[in-house]
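Protocol step 4 of 6.
Sequence for Multidrug resistance protein stp (Phytobacter massiliensis) entered exactly as in the expression construct, tag removed. Do not edit the line below.
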Amino acid sequence: MTIATSTLSRHARMMAAFSVLLAAVLLPLSFTGGVISTPAIQRALGGSPAALSWLTNGFMLTFGSFLLSAGVAADITGRKRIFVAGAALFCFSSAMIGLTQHILMAGLLRSLQGLAAAMILASGSAALARLYEGPERTRVFSMLGTLFGVGLAFGPVVIGFITDALGWRWVYAMLALLSGMVLLIGLLFLPGAEKRQQQKPAGAGLILFTAALILLTSAVMLIPAFGFFSLTVLALFLSAMLLFIGFVSRCQNTPNPALDISLLLRPCFAGILLLPVATCYCYVVLLIIIPLHFMGGDGMSEARSALYLLALTSPMLFFPSVAAMLTRWFSPAAVSATGLIIASAGLLFLGYALQSSSSYFLLFSLFITGAGAALPWGLMDGLALSLVPVEKAGMAAGLFNTVRVAGEGIALAMVSAFLTEMNALNLQKTVHGYAPDVIHHAAAWLGGGNTERAAAILPAISRTLLRGSYDSAYMFLFRVLAAVTLACALIVWMMLGRKAPE
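Step 5 output, structure tokens:
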């Protein structure tokens, strides 16, 4: 504990911690809020499938792309400054979303919200670490993870009921109010952070890394509109690859790099980085596509779809603790790999459950998938820091969080593109008399879960045929997600069993 924090009273320290812990609930609420309220926003503001998907993808794009840069900025300029600035930007963007009358402006403001979330997350956990030491720090970080899980588990329910009862604008009014509380409490009680770095890291490297992530995610997001082999998409992929190469070269030839590439050469650490990628595909993407399926394909209300989603999210409240307990008898690699195998089985069940009439089978499949994903979820943060030298722990944490959040953004964009393309292929085989671009437009709406708009675009096509295409795309998607999750489980098992180089 530094001199600055040791002079804080117990009350001031508790209030400072409360501002960060409240933010831990706020961030998953903002993530799920964009999803659950999307159909209501579409009914009020209209918009194309691409504009509506930006409400989620735009948030994740800036959240993941700026996380590493925000962490470095917090180390240089002070954690409190970045935290307070992020809370202020989050409050402003949330309030403006609630007032906007245009879908494109809402998407732009969601991108600002994502940038603010990156600033809050990157600086908040670092500020929290300065407030406590030893067992107290362990307890408060355990509470941080628990509250994040609470936000993920109950956020859809809260957002769903607010949307049903009051309207989607009140969702963002609530987010503005909560972020305003975070701002005020953080401003009053967080200790002024000292400048920790005497030497500035390579700013050019951070710019290259951030730009590469933005271009890569944008390329994936544009596949439904332009096609994978379009010049626009290929140019973005090529530009992203060149920027990543430039970033790696910069890191290798700079005395104080933004990222120590040698971390990636540690097999155990590389295996840990695969865990958040795996949980993206077996858990996080489901938080987006399952509610859209319930509301768009099955006609559920926002509140009812959120209640069903509890079967998926509620295991995050207690299964991470089960994972920690299991490590007394089994290795973290065994627990993590077993969890991913269970999640893979749950995904296969889920593909069939969504087409069945049994609510019990659906709830069981959601619960099994969530429980399996929760086992590695409860271990991977601690493992990421335990497998690197102490002096590189901060950099490792920044890299891990960047891989997690940026991976989530890319995964969401890939799944959206996959559903659109699968529906387009299915419709092209069975639908005749419509131009290819009309079929693709209808497929984009089907990929977003809106069967009504797809039927309006293809009025001569029966609802049964459209529903068959929709169900077939989801079935194939869940098989792919199960295969990816199973492959990650096997690789994690092999890599976590190897020793890192000295």
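Step 6, annotate. The first helix runs from residue 3 to 6.
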